[in-house]
Design brief:
By secondary structure, the protein is mainly beta. It has a single domain, classed as Methylamine Dehydrogenase, Chain H, CATH 2.130.10. The chain has a 5-stranded antiparallel sheet, with no helix packed on it. It has a 5-stranded antiparallel sheet with strand order 6-7-35-34-33, with no helix packed on it. It has a 5-stranded mixed sheet with strand order 16-20-19-18-17, with no helix packed on it. β30 and β31 form a beta hairpin. It is globular and about 50 Å long.
Length: 395
Amino acid sequence: MAALLLMSCDGDGAGDVATAPSTTAATTSAPTTASPTTATSATATTTGSTTAGATAASTSTAAPTTVPPTTAAAPGVAQLGDGLVEAMSPDGSNVMVSRVIEGLSVPGCEGQPEPVLVLAPVAGGEAVAALPDNPEYNGTVTDLGSGRVALVAGCEEFLSGIVVTDQAPTGALSGATEVPSPSGQPIDAILDIGAADPAALVALAGRFGATGNETAVVRIDLATGVTTELLQTGEADFLFGVLADGTYALGDGVEVRVVHPITGQELSAYPGEFLAVSPDGTTLAVVGPGVVLVSPPAAPAPLLEPPAGEAPVIDAAWAPAGDRLAIVRRGVEDTLAVVDRAGTVIELDTARRIVRLAWSADGSTLAYTRLLEGTGGELGDFEVRAVRVPPATAG
């Protein structure tokens, strides 16, 4: 999982993006007694950040819930307008996008317009609000299983709210319920989510104090808001995943460590900037500058190694079947590609910057956000696309 995206509002009417690797709709399992049984990788990468967008005040609006129609791009690629990718709908028909919409976005973080979650059809057409009855709710979309999702929202570095909703196959949300503010062992920020089910989130959380900051793995009860600390971690950690044997993967942007979930004992460590846990929890992808696959007890297996100093891999997201990774290579331009476990690479697109990757459940479509050329990083400067991914090679 990559860290969650931080949206900051600086008075210019749009959110600024800190850094960004990936988001994915794939779900992974984490069979451990300390954790819920489903991990999600709904993320985008920022160092030490919380979620995309912040929960706005509950303000009703009579504005329409549709946004301008999308336009077509090159064959096989759908251009879906501006905004940031949050996830794909369960049936793969829509991309869930955070987008500022005049007349529908309400004042939120530091008084700036809040992004609205919309459903942008992959096949083209008019995007609609994902949660029309409560457009003020937004945030990182985390799959809880059983047709439920959590929206985890933040303002600057701070957690501002968690909302649980029902989700239809098309991605449409309904029945929003606010989770009570975290209590018991309060937290200031959610840095990354490693596991989730309808009852709870297991996340890497941050606390900010006058004498310093600390991070810990916590369980957040979605019915009561009660937060239970499971393990204190390194101060610099901002990446988190849960493996099938219950161990935790933690990353600080320099090193990825696998630790015991109770004692915190370091079991293994690998140089790498990012991490991604496979959907079945058995394989850890250590990312940067290449990709190394770790599947204990087998020895680590290099998957990709770029030429020295050239096009390092800076993000990766597993396909739901666990047979391929979507990757982003950074050069003068970013290159979006998929790579199978044999190391075969298929390039899909290039752009100034590519962030926030999300797979469809059947692995046929990949949604992503492109930073448009010549722009400065505001929310409106991002373009959402979806591309059809060639089928995996048999065998």
